[in-house]
């Protein structure tokens, strides 16, 4: 009944805030200090990421859009060729602009599928549930708000059909390589033989191009990083002074790791949740995010080492980005 539903909802959101608080405290008590980039995506963060995707320097989205708009037919044919009716599960769906190309084509081809977008942002999931059935008439959609593997389990409990998983935008780059490998292994364990993964990975390229994408002139990336401090202020009752932190993006062409830091501009104390005091030395950094870039060889290696067979690769004209289909 509605009382129970309300209680569950409140319990769920309390638990979420508690998990957020405990992750933030652990991360900021650590040495070096760090925050988890998955927390970037509240409603403001979603908006800032959309601005980023539209800014000139941020190339990955445009590359993947080019692939999806120019190779739509081949990509959806390959997904359909995997077998009968399927669940199309997207990890980190965001605004689904890219996947919409595939969804539209699958609908045109009368493929029998349900779209299950998973996202950490509540805001994103309610938006998709409301807008996609309007823009894509006939689409069967069940949005799932939560962590990737929790929601994958939930998806498997709803349906036992063949799974096609989308993991786009080089979201996998938000993990350091060893963690990304562990992630793919776990993902493989959630799949059955013959299931498919369409994975987007950003490739190593001119270091200046990479760094510029994470150091845009308009300062959207800086705002995107500072927004997490603002979110902590708002949701966890902290008193970060955003003016006392600067954004420092780096790219190491050797490892392919693109990392973002916030640097404390002075010696300062920040209070979180009314009781926890965090001390920052002048010039001390918070490690915010990694956006790993890969070699083509690495992409195949990761597939093979984690129990997948690489099937096909699709590139943009500049070969800056790859969308690969791996079979479980
Ligand atoms: C959404 C994780 C793919 O790492 O490129 C963009 C997020 N961070 N600019 C990325 C992001 C800074 C993005 N991903």
UniProtKB/TrEMBL annotation:
InterPro entries: EgtD_Methyltrsf_superfamily, MeTrfase_dom, MeTrfase_EgtD-like, SAM-dependent_MTases_sf. The keyword Methyltransferase applies. Gene3D superfamilies: Vaccinia Virus protein VP39 (3.40.50.150). This is L-histidine N(Alpha)-methyltransferase. It holds the Pfam family Methyltransf_33. Signal peptide: none annotated. It comes from Mucilaginibacter dorajii. The keyword Transferase applies. Residues 22-326 form the Histidine-specific methyltransferase SAM-dependent domain. Keywords: Methyltransferase, Transferase.
């Amino acid at each position: 009944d509605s009382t129970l539903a309300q209680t569950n909802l409140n319990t769920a959101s309390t638990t979420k805030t508690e998990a957020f608080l405990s992750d933030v405290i652990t991360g900021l008590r650590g040495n070096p200090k760090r925050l988890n980039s998955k927390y970037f995506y509240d409603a403001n963060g979603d908006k800032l990421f959309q601005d980023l995707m539209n800014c000139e320097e941020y190339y990955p989205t445009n590359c993947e859009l080019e692939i999806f708009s120019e190779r739509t037919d081949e990509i959806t044919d390959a997904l359909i060729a995997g077998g009968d009716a399927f669940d199309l599960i997207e990890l980190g769906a965001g605004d689904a602009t890219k996947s919409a190309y595939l969804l539209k084509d699958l609908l045109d081809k009368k493929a029998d599928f349900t779209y299950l977008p998973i996202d950490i942002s509540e805001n994103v999931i309610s938006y998709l549930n409301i807008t996609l059935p309007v823009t894509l008439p006939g689409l069967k959609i069940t949005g799932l708000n939560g962590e990737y593997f929790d929601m994958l389990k939930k998806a498997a409990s709803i349906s036992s059909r063949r799974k096609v998983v989308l993991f786009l935008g080089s979201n996998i780059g938000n993990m350091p390589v060893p963690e990304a490998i562990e992630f793919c292994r776990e993902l493989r364990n959630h799949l059955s033989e013959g299931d498919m993964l369409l994975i987007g990975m950003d490739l190593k390229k001119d270091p200046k191009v990479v760094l510029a994408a994470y150091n845009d002139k308009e300062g959207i990336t800086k705002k995107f990083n500072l927004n997490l401090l603002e979110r902590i202020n708002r949701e966890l009752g902290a008193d970060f002074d955003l003016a006392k932190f600067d954004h420092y993006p780096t790219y190491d062409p050797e490892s392919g790791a693109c990392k973002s830091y916030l640097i404390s501009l002075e010696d300062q104390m920040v209070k979180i949740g009314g009781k926890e005091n965090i001390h920052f030395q002048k010039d001390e950094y918070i490690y915010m995010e990694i956006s790993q870039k890969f070699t083509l060889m690495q992409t195949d290696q990761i597939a093979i080492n984690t129990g997948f067979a690489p099937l096909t690769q699709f590139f943009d004209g500049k070969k800056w980005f790859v969308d690969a289909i791996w079979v479980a």
